[in-house]
Amino acid sequence: MSHTATPNRPGSAGLHERIRARLDRVTDPELDESILELGYVDAIEINERTATLRFTLPTAWCSPAFAWMMAVDARDELESLPEIDQATIELRDHMHEQEINEGVNDRLPFADAFPDADGEVRSVRATLDDKARLSRQYVAVERLLAAGLSAEQITALTPADLRFDRDVDPRMEGARAAIAVGDGAFSVSVPARPLHRYLRKARDVGYAIEDDDPLFLTPEGEPIATEEFELVHRRGRLARTNVTGQGGVCEALNEQRREKLDRDGPVILEAN
Amino acid sequence: MYQHQGEDVFVIDGHIHMWDASEENIKHRGGEQFIQCFYDYHTAFTPEERQRGMDDYRKFTPEDVKRDLFTNYVDMGVYQPTHLHEFYTEGFNTVDDLGETLYQEYPDRFVLNGRWDPRDGEAGLKELERQKEEYDIKGAKVYTAEWKGDSKGWRLDSDEAFEFLQKCADLGVKNIHPHKGPTIRPLNKDAFDVADVDLAASSFPELNFIVEHVGLPRLDDFCWIATQEPNVYGGIAVAAPMALSRPKKFSEIMCELLYWLGEDQLTFGSDYGIWDPDWVIEAVMETELSADQHAEYGVEFGLEAKKKLMGENIAELYDIDIEERKKAFRTDAISEEFGLGDSYDTAAPADD
């Protein structure tokens, strides 16, 4: 990943970091991976208090609904930064780039930008979020199993048993979290990022909200009985293989396309 | 015939096409987008030295198909029609395209599948009868995301589709191949959703449902349905080419399929002409699971499983006697033309 450092502008390196952290949360909804990680972002241009993000998808015919979600999420994440008043999104080389760019930048609802589309974005997003929740659960639970927790202990966990270190961003490499086990009798230290990623998605979907809710759930959203832990975990693995497998298809398409378009990325540029 | 570690592997390519996307045949911009999208898939996975030019890719003639399949390890091909009449004046890849050409000359080398669309109503049922009568079809490809008028797709579990499934059962068209692949089209309605296979499969236990492209990117939904319905199979076309450039991802997908469905429920497809079969077959046959994968999944992907995947399973679905075909292929016209007869000779099992 290239990065145009601007050492003579105090504070701007910090802004770049925070832009990256924000965009790290913008995922391709089908692959549950960040658009930065996936290499979709061509450039982010910062001009005073506005930002422009340009991106290209692996094919010109990728689902417009997915493209829409990524564009809206990127706009909202960028605008959540105090330094950015307005973000403009520019999807490039897509068969519906005009509808998407105008719709997202004019803040229209999807149905107005695509009057022909039947169905709406919200339910598509909810379905994909729920799959991402299960896939992330698999990754998080693998960490807990590796740390020595039993099926019984894992299925009994609640959000109250999970503590992230307050001083460290849980998304950072090396950040740790503590899991309280046996009614708080002892605690186990695990990598924070997979747990944090899981909890955020679970909460997006509406699970693991209250302190005494179950932390992990079945694909259907029920608490996990200890005897069904194994099956639920295997279904989580399957959800994970699905997203990474499809990720392989998209990655191959993306690599080939970027080569064809001669497009590297991403670069953060300062216009002045 | 393909050879692997000194053993013969009879390959029935379960997913082949012979399409016409020439500019003269395109009547809607969707037709151009569709073939361009196929071409993206072609170039993304095909080794550079085997990539076709776009002009070469637009249209496949019977001569192309014959040569590309039978000189590239394929012993038999299962033709899967994709009509797309909204996009292409004469259709993209129709039942009659193969039925009136190669299938006439080499009926033993092909399985010709029919095709139906419940939105065609009475006329569609009549057409299905015609396909049965004319070609004695034993299977049909269904494309739930096909456009028709204002409609951008249909479901297999609808009343209208059930009428056609009943017709298939009555006619002995027992293998239904729903295409469930990557989301390209339509807009946001997910017409490749696999959930509709569930009710169709449990309502028609006398039919087999071979889900093409194993539902990717809905592998999870597909496997979960398939574990519950004994008449649901997975066709690995589109997953298969990953065996070359993304071997780890391919083997993970195979592990899941072997774990949830088992080695008897899987069929191979190159998806020709999206890709040529030779390198796809080689890459799948060369796939070895890692020690970690063996431990994690408890499945095997050895020669026996590979032979089932490459031909034996689909032979069972279509009542093909592989040994008999091998005998016939020693001297059939295709073997004569391409000098393949000897490869079937060595395969003869001892009769005495």
Automatic annotation (TrEMBL), chain A:
InterPro entries: FSCA_dom_sf, MIP18-like
Domain MIP18 family-like: 17-90
Name of the protein in its database record: MIP18 family-like domain-containing protein
Automatic annotation (TrEMBL), chain B:
Superkingdom field: Archaea
Residue span(s) of domain Amidohydrolase-related: 12-320
Molecular functions (GO terms): hydrolase activity
Pfam families: Amidohydro_2
PANTHER family, per database record: BLR3681 PROTEIN (PTHR42889:SF1)
Protein name per the record: Amidohydrolase-related domain-containing protein
Gene source species: Halorubrum vacuolatum
